[in-house]
Amino acid sequence: MFVFKAAVVGAGTMGGEIAQTIANADIPVVLKDVDQQFVDQGLEKARSLWQNRVDQGKMEPAELERKHGLITGTTGYGDFGDVDFVIEAVPERMEIKQAVFSELDEVTAGHAVLSSNTSSLSITEMGEATSRPDKVVGFHFFFPASVMRLIEVIEGDDTSPETVRAAMSFAQSVRKVPIRCVEAPGFVVNRILNSSVSELWRFQEETGADVKEVDRIVSDSKAAPMGPFFLTDLLGLDVTVHVAEYLAEAYGDRFYVHKRMRELVAEGNLGAKTGRGFYEHGN
Ligand SMILES: NC(=O)c1ccc[n+]([C@@H]2O[C@H](COP(=O)([O-])OP(=O)(O)OC[C@H]3O[C@@H](n4cnc5c(N)ncnc54)[C@H](O)[C@@H]3O)[C@@H](O)[C@H]2O)c1
Q1: Among all residues, which ones are annotated catalytic?
Q2: Are 277 and 232 in contact, with CB atoms under 8 Å apart?
Q3: Which of 64, 103, 158, 175, by CA, is between 20 and 30 Å from 222?
């Protein structure tokens, strides 16, 4: 299946960059959120990524405008009728995902593939909210979506082989490297990532080590590009806690849920997107 036009639902931490990645491959894309303020933030995020290239002399300003013009920001479903491939990137809660999938089923043409950027939830259950579970698939980008090359293509129980092929091929069209996986908790990458980061989180809470010091040592040692606490601030503490809880539930206490992270979420401090997490972030 050729994707002439795509759509992204949810213009948050992931959605804006996913739309930018698609438009950067010269594919028109609709970017929808519930509020114009979030749509504008997503469009601004996309612009800033291209602006960096302009500032480095790697892109002409006119090319920035042309690519940015391929993204249509909206709060409604009016532009979804001729979309071939949708990526849902709304908060990691099944009831929100199912409501969005049910709406997408109504507003898109029957051939359209409906995919989810979920980090952990069941693709099969999202498919159940539609009349086309065979066309529902996981399409999991990694943060930051404009940079990270991998996409996990996740098969639900009802996902058809054609849909998996369409997702693999669309991932390559947007210059990513797809891997196929089944619907196991954490899929592939989060299972690996969380098992190593769990040990750091556990160590920090058991010893009371300063989180900034832990981050400094990890990044100074070049074990990772940035420390685990700064990274989770950027990813969103709510998303991180959700994945950690899900993995601990699925695999037991070899996966750790950081208690202070949970408290920060309960306080509404979700990291960079709310301005405060383990660190203060200027917005
Ligand atoms: N943050 C990450 O690092 C990361 C990485 C990979 C995958 N994911 C997954 O991507 C999804 C989105 O995560 P995020 O971090 O971008 O979340 P986020 O909270 O930053 O953004 C979610 C956006 O969805 C919007 N939204 C809520 N309900 C909506 C609706 N009904 N219709 C349209 N928009 C709606 C919100 O207004 C918000 O702008 C989650 O499933 C998450 O697990 C996140």
Answers
A1: 140
A2: yes
A3: 175
